[in-house]
């Protein structure tokens, strides 16, 4: 583990007292508290989004480049992230991506359910392993937030920016109604939560050149697993909820760790002499996202 680098995409959470580490990695709190900190401001991203940023590519383009069935007339692609919604009195909260089980069978089932509706809109949903990409014959002018900004949080109660925002929101609502009418029997039999909708994000014009060179990554995220090779990986990208599948709780952690979330990331470096003072997870003189990405690329 010491030879690897670790990125926990939702390792930081917001509290009434500021930032804190995610509860699911609190068992490593003593080790993490001994590291030196370097803070950065950055957008919230999930595992696929972070990998795309490190590759200097869009997430949708990475999936599109690995989808052999895209029609020649495809003009735009979106990442389609499925979700389970928990209905509150006046809001809808999504189950965190790290707690949402997803398989190739699920991806193929969702394509079969949604494509009759989507084709009427000039769109097609494709499975790339477990990952899902929506191909559009006409571009939609909409700017929804990244999936990382709604995963485990409330769905926005307003339209995204863009001239096609109304159409975009209507489409997502129609998909939710269709999935309510056609629950996945195989998921119900296995005891998995229902699929209540998809979130479209990371829209990218197509086609465009995409580098064939890939950063090797160890991960348990189904979407990212579908496009990366974990052999000889020097980098682990994980959600906090899945970290114990990759890192043993009693094992020494990596020498370089990035915890991200809530608009910040902290690069942790293991010192030669452990720090003894109490750790505060407070951003100090944060650098930029570009500086963080450059630092991470140098490490891997």
Q: Describe it for me?
A:
The protein has 300 residues and is α+β, with helices and mostly antiparallel strands. The chain folds into 2 domains: 5-48 and 213-299, no CATH class; 57-205, no CATH class. It contains 8 helices and 14 strands. The strands form 4 sheets. The chain has a 6-stranded mixed β-sheet, covered by helices on one side. A 4-stranded antiparallel β-sheet has the order 8-9-5-10. Strand 13 and strand 14 (264-269) form a beta hairpin.
Nutshell version of this structure?
25% of the residues lie in helices and 24% in strands.
Query: Whole-number radius of gyration?
Result: 20 Å
As residue ranges, the low-confidence spans are none
Query: Would you tell me the overall average pLDDT?
Result: 93
Pairing-aware structural class of the strands and helices? alpha+beta
Task: Summarize the main sheet.
Answer: 6 strands, mixed
Strand segment tally: 14
How many domains in all? 2
Helix content class: 10-25%
The dominant shape is globular
Q: What is the topology, as strand order, of the major beta sheet?
A: 4-14-13-1-12-11
Number of helices: 8
User: Secondary-structure element sequence?
Assistant: EEEHEHHEEEHEEHHEEHEEEH
Q: Percent of residues in beta strands?
A: 15-25%
Distance between the termini: 14 Å
């Amino acid at each position: 583990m010491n030879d690897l680098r670790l990125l926990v995409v939702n390792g930081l959470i917001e509290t009434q007292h500021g930032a804190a580490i995610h509860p699911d990695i609190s068992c490593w709190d003593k080790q993490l508290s001994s590291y030196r900190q370097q803070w950065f401001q950055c957008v919230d991203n999930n595992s696929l989004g972070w990998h795309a940023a490190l590759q200097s590519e869009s997430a949708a383009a990475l999936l599109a480049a690995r989808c052999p069935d895209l029609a020649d007339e495809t003009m735009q692609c979106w990442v389609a992230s499925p979700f389970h919604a928990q209905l509150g009195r006046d809001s809808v909260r999504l189950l965190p991506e790290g707690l949402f089980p997803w398989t190739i069978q699920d991806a193929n089932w969702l394509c079969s359910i949604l494509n009759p509706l989507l084709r009427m809109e000039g769109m097609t949903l494709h499975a790339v392993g477990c990952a899902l990409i929506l191909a559009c014959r006409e571009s939609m002018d909409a700017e929804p937030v990244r999936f990382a900004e709604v995963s485990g949080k409330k769905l926005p109660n307003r339209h995204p920016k863009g001239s096609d925002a109304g159409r975009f929101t209507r489409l997502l609502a129609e998909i939710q109604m269709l999935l309510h009418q056609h629950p996945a029997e195989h998921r119900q039999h296995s005891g998995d939560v229902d699929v209540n909708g998809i979130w479209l994000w990371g829209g990218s014009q197509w086609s465009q050149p995409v580098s064939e060179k890939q950063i090797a990554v160890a991960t348990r995220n189904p979407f990212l697993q579908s496009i990366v090779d974990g052999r000889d990986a020097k980098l682990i990208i994980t959600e906090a909820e899945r970290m114990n599948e990759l890192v043993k709780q009693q094992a020494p952690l990596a020498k370089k760790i990035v915890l991200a979330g809530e608009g910040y990331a902290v690069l942790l470096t293991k010192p030669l002499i452990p720090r003894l003072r109490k750790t505060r997870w407070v951003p100090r003189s944060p650098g930029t996202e570009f500086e963080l990405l450059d630092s991470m690329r140098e490490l891997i």
